[in-house]
Amino acid sequence: MVFMRGYCEANSSISRTWVDEGISPCFYFTLVPSVLLSISFFLGTIHCIFYQKYGTPMEPKFIPRSRLYGFQQAVSILLLVQFVGGVVWRAAAGGELPGYVVLYGCFSALGWAWAVALLRVERRRALLMDRTRGHSVALLLFWAVAFSAENLAFVSWYSPHWWWGLEDRLQQVHFALWLMRYIGTGLLFFIGLKAPGLPRKPYILLINEDERDVEDSGQSLLGQTEENQSTWQGFSKKVRVLLPYMWPRGNIFLQLLVLFCLTLLAVERVINVFVPIYYKNIVNELTDGSSWRSLSTTVCIYVLLKFLQGGGAGASGFVSNLRSFLWIRVQQFTNRVVQVRLFSHLHSLSLRWHLGRKTGDVLRSIDRGTSSINSLLSYIVFSIIPTMADIAISIIYFITYFNAWFGLIIFTCMALYLTLTIIITEWRTKYRRDMNLQDNNAKSKAVDSLLNFETVKYYNAEDYEVGRFEDAILKYQVSEWKTQASLAFLNQTQNLVIGSGLLAGSLLCAYFVTEGKFQIGDFVLFGTYIIQLYTPLNWFGTYYRMIQNSFIDMESMFKLFEEDEEVKDEVNAGSLQYKRGTVEFENVYFSYVNGKEILRDVSFTVLPGQTCALVGPSGSGKSTIMRLLFRFYDVQGGSISIDGQDISKVKQRSLRAHIGVVPQDTVLFNDTIRDNIRYGRISASDQEVEEAALAADIHDKIMTFPEGYDTQVGERGLKLSGGEKQRVAIARTILKAPQIILLDEATSALDTQTERNIQASLAKVCVNRTTVVVAHRLSTIIGADQILVISDGRIAERGRHEELLAKGGLYGDMWQRQQQAHDSDSSSDTEAKDLKSEKLQPPSTSSGPHDH
């Protein structure tokens, strides 16, 4: 039989908050549901009014499907049922049913029902003016208070009025219900931070992106970036990229070093616990009048522990310094592996990507990305994980050896500190990302300007370039100011939380000392331990910011890693088996951009040892044929084969080993002439390099330089003339000794005499080799075995020089125009020479009639 004698149990009152070493159940189960119901109804009602007045129903396609959202709803409904079921069970069990139990069940059920309704409203309607993402403040605050309220039960650990003793069936059921609430509210709070059932972007942004082409949304150098995107988005993917660098595979010595460093890390945690304990013992022994032998032993142990620990947790002690020293080798391994892998990946990307890149941005991304990986590993393994371990150990220690109030103070302070740190840091992420973008822009402008030094001088544009660079720096400094200002705000917030927690704990500890429950050493222990704990906690915000900044710095590098290789070897691709050197294009189609074909149905064959010349107007597709043959790109239709082997089915390395290229614009490394020539075959000896230079007709010129073959050519070879650079390129190709030669307008930018000299050198290179030439001056390919006239991506004419002239088609017109231009240039040169000779001729002297 159920009966109600009053609102609280017998001998209890709602005005008494503390009863028998714990919170009064009547007070607790009245306060908690009242606060929760007030939050859900007050804030929730305001929230619903705003959604109804300013919101709009979301289109189903913009609502993400999420199992986590279904789980959120299920847990919320389960908790609602639990509150009602608890009251029903209490009533059915018989005995006294206090009024606060009924109020607790009813108020809690109403509050959670309203929370479920809010959850559904958020999923179906969106505020167009909302620039944030995630759940509303009402829901997050409701879940946070509910979870904190369940944690508050730990304060009553020693109270007989609560369920911790599990002495009878009633306490066991209450404990099971509390455990369900604790787990459920905790899950809802942490899942709520992710907001799985809501769009990741503001709804108006989703609508705009759906209505316009993706290209209009703005691309960065290395891919699209979202200003409001969290750095933790895609966290699991980023961690998977980092995992291979955390464990040095294949190196047993480094693996043992990693294990030993982790062992030292665990030793540090133990030392951090015993340092304040021994400090407490020293104070107690001094006040109790202990013997000198006992006191000196305690002091020596304390000093030894302090030596091992250092100036405090996070400071440099013996163990910390030893661990940092041993970790250097592991860090260097990680740094080397990341840089080498990224450098190799960049070289595997297609010519299309390299033509569109910005060198300054790429270099900055590589520098920041590789250094950020080391920072991430160091912060996560040696800062974040130890700090979290220290916090957990301290809460357990204070609850066990002091009382639950101290554990609650530390837990509340830590939770508030970490939550505010994460929220504020997430908010200021956009400023850091924009600062990186402006930094990239400034460095990119500087690199481009310096690389084009000559062009700047040609047009007296020094002031313009300096002005552009200064504007870029000013934009960077604006973003930098926002970043630093938001950092100062975060630091002040952290200091306020830490100071409040230290004040509350110190006052409570001092009170217990005055009451005689604690010794003086206990107060010293609390002060020492809490300050020791706050030291890494104070740095925790820095660690979190640094980890987040490292993720931001890594974003560009991750995008570099995500760039796909456009030209890939097939899985079972074999090496090219070179036989005679027959090159065949069969119905080849190709386009750089969809919808704009560069080559259409191109078919031709170059027999072994023959020379095939490609001529035609600019943009007709001549150089594209060369790039396809070298397999910078793969064809979209048809095939290219060498000796009957489709080049897309063989390994790129084996294909390119048989092909030598002399480009139109030769770019040299900023190294010696000897090393630039040796680049054709790295293993070549000095004698072979000089023989190649002799064959390219540049040896004598090199010997006139003061340093000979050790002469530095400057960046991109700018210290050499155009003809000298071309001959170095020819020497490279001779040293490589390929069976197939590609000449891409190799002499178009040279004067007539230099062109003739280089043509003679090229003729030596091409003897008995299959050769494909892109020619601008038709006079250089008169002796070609086959001439292809390319027009609008098709082969308009083909044949030998005489045959094409006889046809009188495109080739004939090109030949005639070049001859007329040549004749005009020749007559101009003759007139200039005559005029010069007249100016140089001395005036004639004649005698007049009166001269005697």
UniProtKB/TrEMBL annotation:
An example of a GO molecular function for this protein is: ATP binding
Give the region (Disordered) as residue ranges: 815-852
Q: Which SMART domains match?
A: AAA
Q: Where in the cell is it found?
A: Cell membrane; Early endosome membrane; Endoplasmic reticulum membrane; Endosome membrane
Composition bias (Polar residues) maps to 842-852
Tell me the enzyme class: translocase
> CDD domains attached here?
ABC_6TM_ABCB6, ABCC_ATM1_transporter
The UniProt transmembrane annotation reads: 27-50, 71-91, 97-117, 137-155, 175-193, 252-279, 299-319, 376-399, 405-425, 496-514, 520-540
Q: Name one GO cellular component term.
A: extracellular region
Tell me, in one coarse class, where this protein mainly resides.
Answer: membrane
Q: What is its EC number?
A: 7.6.2.5
Q: Where is the ABC transmembrane type-1 domain?
A: 259-549
Per the similarity annotation, which family is this?
A: Belongs to the ABC transporter superfamily. ABCB family. Heavy Metal importer (TC 3.A.1.210) subfamily.
Under PANTHER family, the record lists: ATP-BINDING CASSETTE SUB-FAMILY B, ATP-BINDING CASSETTE SUB-FAMILY B MEMBER 6
Q: How does it assemble?
A: Homodimer.
What protein is this chain from? ATP-binding cassette sub-family B member 6
> Which species is this UniProt entry from?
Liparis tanakae (Tanaka's snailfish)
Gene behind this protein:
abcb6
